[in-house]
Specification:
Elements lengths: L2 H17 L10 H12 L6 H10 L7 H15 L9 H9 L5 H10 L4 H11 L7 H12 L3 H11 L2 H4 L7 E11 L2 E2 H4 L11 H5 L5 H13 L4 E7 L3 E3 L4 H11 L1 E2 L8 E2 L2 E4 L5 H9 L3 E4 L3 E3 L17 E3 L8 E5 L4 E4 L2 E5 L6 H9 L2 H18 L22 H9 E2 L12 E5 L2 E4 L1 H13 L11 E4 L10 H17 L2 E2 L14 H8 L6 E4 L10 E4 L2 H10 L1 E5 L3 E7 L8 H15 L10 E5 L5 H10 L7 E5 L2 H20 L8 H18 L15 E6 L7 E3 L17 E3 L11 E5 L5 H18 L8 E4 L3 H10 L1 H8 E4 L17 E3 L19 E4 L19 E4 L2 H10 L5 H7 L18
Parallel strand pairs: 1-3, 2-4, 3-7, 7-8, 16-17, 16-19, 17-18, 19-20, 22-23, 22-25, 23-24, 28-29, 28-32, 29-31, 30-31, 32-33
Antiparallel strand pairs: 1-11, 5-6, 9-10, 11-12, 12-13, 14-15, 15-21, 26-27
Length: about 950
């Protein structure tokens, strides 16, 4: 493409963006920046002034190809090879200092280790402020140091003292904020970054337009104009902030509207958002806030009203009555004191907020984000080792909680095994801050482009060698292969494939594109129950190992370093007693667990922010995943499934078979990562069978925050999670905590559409569907749907297995539509007929970014999410609602066009092989 054409195309795009109220798109490509640099060098060029602005203020840093061109040109200016009156050598050094690693570090090392002493000293000054160095960079410094280079020694001595951190300004003692109520009740990340706008997440300014509503954005701007000396604090009133998906884009949007610029030379990257919630911040969201150096505050401004005996006073529905202890109404001015760790309204102390200002969080705030601390610690360790000195205490020491005589929960055991940098021989308990090695990492497709951006910004080019395996999915964009997907997904897959991940789509087109749900793939490639898994989705909740859903940045950090940092969470132990009734499905046990827990603890969710250690020993990984997956909706930090030896071996054999299928399809890479996982699985199976290392169990004297015993005898009918869209108390809507028995609906609630799919179902659910259809035809002579039924199997493996076992043929018989991979849909479905749709494996309606039910529909689904607008949006006359239930309830609801009665349900599932569970009698706590 001709030089002038490249630039003119960019100008044309700028004009198009102006019509949308947008600034020029940040530049990440070398071709365009090369043209811009040529125009800067030509002092008579008509585009020179604009080109200078683009070069200085609108180029993405890190390892983008544009950053490479920018760094090279700045080097020319510093060496005097190019003269640009607007960019002096001193300014060129300043620009390099804001480029965050990669080519900029290479240039700075060239200059610092060069022959011009004056330039070398200036380059060294900048290098001393940088932390995004990798092995190739530190190897150059080490070589120069060992050769007696004085500048190299000076840089390394600075690193040893962590001057890149100590010379930063201290965190302000007082931070003034003005409040903005984003909503009453839980604020989901869907409100902050809607799933149907996922395609625009990597275009930060454009994506920022979708946060909450345009009216809310105007209110925030008005508050900023009225209070120019204050930060706007976004609040979830009488709810939790940031529940739902693990979206960096949600925090990015909050920072874009309420934070501050990370650098004057980096476009649309803001940091330091301040958020609050009556019930605190969702654990995943809080981690993402830390990534950006922000502040998350548990406001506790509404508390339970108590009677004279100290017991909660309840309303007619049995819910505790809340009373306001202090107001955070929009426009309230508050003061955060970071030294006293208190929140004030004027001189009035409101609440202690120490948890928001731990020593580690204070470091994140000071450094502008957690990445800088992670990389800073690594560079300090390198420097001290090279100098042969003890590491000076600069950073807050890791908190090490060790309680003599107290056993370990399962998560404590896993963290102790994988911890790095802890005191030798010390056994750590919950509350300890730990750096851990990560075994498995997952990146999903609607956040993957952001993960790629984060990897570029931290100058990472290859996956850490200590990661056992990593996967890039294509499931969130599986439903519709539209222009947005065609533009984004191939580019993402190429980047991740080059980086070293196993990718769902092969950039070279060698193997067939896979759209398997990411959590299902991660569950298969996790081949050790002692593993730590990090994934770019809140449903990264494996039934082997302990898995943490994470934002795209934390995923990038895990991919680049093979590590993650977090406190060891407290655990809640969940065990079972009694016997499942023959007509119940395991999904009902999952929902009943949540309902029984809330009942046992007077409405308090003891799962929130903690590990659920669930003793499901008799279920294989596929089936147990239904429970661990739902723990995201329980607001748990993560979950661990305690399994019997024989069951775990069976699960690992299933995993091996599925990994082998991936290899047979050509998905392994040149490092044979997938074969390596099979080898590790074989080793683990041998350890279990020989008794050398049985399946993971907690110690008998482990300490739990709480213990929940689920009584299976009490589960008498199917249980449904209801969004309760018309509850008079707005804070009670869309919470996942309203679990109702089937009889509540009286057998007459109209159902407009059914959905079977998402990560909550396994092959058994598809077989249940096939069995029910055969039964209904036998009983009624035909199968007639009174509401559409959309079916999206989670994986291709399931489809292949159903075909081999004859069940897919049954589904085809009753379907009116079957996906065709050779001709995928190019547009989202907007209308549904009363028939069965067999959709492509993937997330489909559960994600809600491509396919949706018709506005205002009442949907009965096996999904995970019931948030407003997720599966179904409101119409002008009716609220859309997504009720979540078991597969047989969904099937019967679409056949009837309404909720079934309990008698209709029991009759319909007679003889059906539902997912059964019986408490383990073999699992003795060790």
């Amino acid at each position: 493409m001709a030089f002038d054409t490249i630039y003119k195309d960019y100008i044309k795009e700028i004009e198009e963006r102006k019509e949308q109220g947008l600034n020029p798109k940040p530049i990440d490509g070398a071709e365009l920046l090369s043209v811009i640099i040529a125009q800067i060098k030509d002092v008579n060029n008509e585009y020179r002034e604009d080109s200078l602005q683009f070069f200085i203020y609108n180029t993405i840093p890190g390892t983008t190809s544009a950053a490479g061109e920018k760094a090279k040109f700045l080097k020319e200016i510093i060496l005097g090879e190019s003269v640009v009156k607007e960019i002096t050598p001193a300014f060129a050094f300043e620009l390099l200092s804001h480029m965050k690693g990669g080519p900029s570090i290479e240039v700075l090392l060239d200059l610092a280790l060069g022959n011009d002493i004056a330039i070398a000293k200036e380059a060294a000054k900048v290098l001393k402020t940088q932390v995004y160095l990798y092995d190739a960079d530190t190897d150059r410094l080490k070589e120069a140091f060992e050769s007696g280079n004085a500048i190299a020694r000076e840089i390394i001595e600075s690193y040893a003292q962590a001057e890149f951190f100590t010379k930063l300004p201290d965190v302000a003692e007082e931070i003034k904020v003005v409040t903005f109520i984003a909503g009453v009740g839980d604020i989901s990340t869907d409100l902050l970054s809607p799933g149907n706008q996922a395609h625009s997440r990597s275009d930060r300014e454009l994506h920022g337009k979708c946060m909450i509503t345009p009216e809310a954005q105007d209110e925030i701007k008005a508050l900023q104009a009225q209070h120019p000396d204050k930060s706007v604090m976004l609040i979830a009133e009488r709810g939790t902030m940031g529940v739902g998906s693990s979206r960096m884009s949600g925090v990015n949007n909050v920072a874009l509207w309420t934070g501050k610029k990370a650098s004057p030379y980096i476009p649309f990257v803001n940091i330091a958002p301040i958020v609050g919630g009556t019930n605190g911040i969702s654990p995943i969201f809080l981690t993402t806030v830390d990534v950006t150096g922000g502040i998350g505050i548990d406001l506790k401004n509404w508390v339970k009203k108590l009677d004279a005996e100290g017991n909660p006073i309840r309303n007619e529905s049995g819910d505790p009555i809340l009373e306001e202890t202090y107001s955070v109404t929009t426009g309230t001015v508050l003061i955060i004191n970071t030294k006293k760790k208190k929140l004030y309204n004027g001189d009035q102390e409101l609440i202690d907020i120490s948890k928001a200002f731990t020593p580690q969080k204070m470091e994140f705030i000071k450094a502008g984000g957690s990445y800088a601390i992670v990389f800073g610690k690594k560079i300090q360790t390198f420097a001290c080792k090279l100098l042969g000195i003890d590491t000076p205490t600069v950073f807050a020491p890791s908190k090490e909680v060790s309680i003599e005589g107290q056993g370990l929960t399962a998560v404590e055991k896993i963290f102790n095994k994988n911890a790095v940098g802890i005191t030798q021989g010390k056994v750590l308990h919950a509350g300890s801050d730990v750096r851990v090695e990560v075994n498995i990492v997952g990146s999903q497709d609607t956040t993957g482009l952001m993960t790629a951006q984060e990897l570029e910004s931290m100058a990472a080019t290859v996956i850490s060698p200590i990661v056992d395996g990593a996967y890039q999915s294509g499931c969130h964009t599986a439903s519709v292969w539209d222009k947005k997907a065609q533009a984004n997904i191939p580019k993402l897959m190429k980047f991740m494939n080059d980086f070293g991940l196993i990718t769902a789509r092969d950039p070279k087109g060698v193997y067939h594109a896979m759209t398997d749900v990411i959590h299902k793939v991660l569950n298969d490639i996790t081949i050790d129950e002692w593993a730590i898994i990090i994934g770019g989705d809140s449903h990264t909740r494996m039934s082997k190992g302990v898995a943490f859903g994470a934002d795209s940045g934390t995923v990038a950090l895990a991919l680049a370093t093979g590590e993650a940092s977090m406190p060891i969470p407290e655990s809640v132990k969940v065990t079972f007693k009694g016997e499942m009734k023959s007509y119940m499905d395991f999904r009902d046990v999952v929902h009943a667990t949540q309902a029984q827990m809330l009942h046992q603890f007077g409405g308090e969710n003891v799962f929130q922010g903690r590990i659920i250690e669930v003793h499901l020993g008799t279920l294989t990984a596929d089936q147990a995943f239904t429970f661990t997956d739902w723990t995201a909706e329980m607001k748990a930090k993560a979950s661990i499934c305690i399994s019997e030896d024989d069951t775990l071996v069976e699960s690992l054999e299933i995993a091996k078979g599925r990994i082998k299928i991936m290899i047979d399809k050509g998905m392994d890479n040149d490092k044979h990562v997938l074969q390596g996982l099979i080898n590790k699985a074989d080793k683990r199976i041998a350890e279990i069978k020989s008794g050398e290392k049985p399946a993971l169990t907690p110690d008998a004297n482990a300490k739990y925050f709480a213990e929940v015993v689920v009584d299976l005898d009490l589960i008498a009918e199917p249980m449904i999670a209801d969004p309760d869209v018309n509850n008079n108390d707005v804070s009670k809507r869309y919470t996942h905590d309203t679990i109702r028995p089937l009889s509540f609906y009286g057998g007459d609630k109209k159902v407009d559409l059914g959905f079977i799919g998402s990560c909550m179902v396994h092959k058994g659910d598809m077989k249940i569907l096939a069995q029910m259809l055969k039964n209904i035809e036998a009983q009624q002579g035909k199968v007639a749907f009174k509401a559409p039924l959309v079916v999206a199997p989670p994986t291709y493996n399931i489809v292949d297995e159903l075909k081999a076992e004859g069940d897919w043929e049954v589904l085809q018989k009753y379907s009116g539509f079957e996906f065709d991979d050779s001709l995928p849909k190019g547009a989202a479905r907007t209308e549904y007929e009363n028939m069965l749709y067999l959709e492509r494996p993937g997330c489909n309606l559960c994600m809600g970014n491509q396919e949706k039910a018709a506005k205002g529909d009442t949907v009965m689904a096996t999904s995970t999410r019931l948030f407003q607008g997720r599966v179904v949006e409101d119409s002008a006359s009716k609220k859309g609602e997504s009720l979540l239930s078991s597969t047989p309830v969904v099937v019967l609801s679409t056949i009837l066009g309404r909720t079934p009665t309990i008698n209709e349900y029991v009759a319909a599932v007679e003889g059906i092989n539902l997912t059964k569970f019986a408490p383990s009698h073999k699992l003795l706590v060790k």
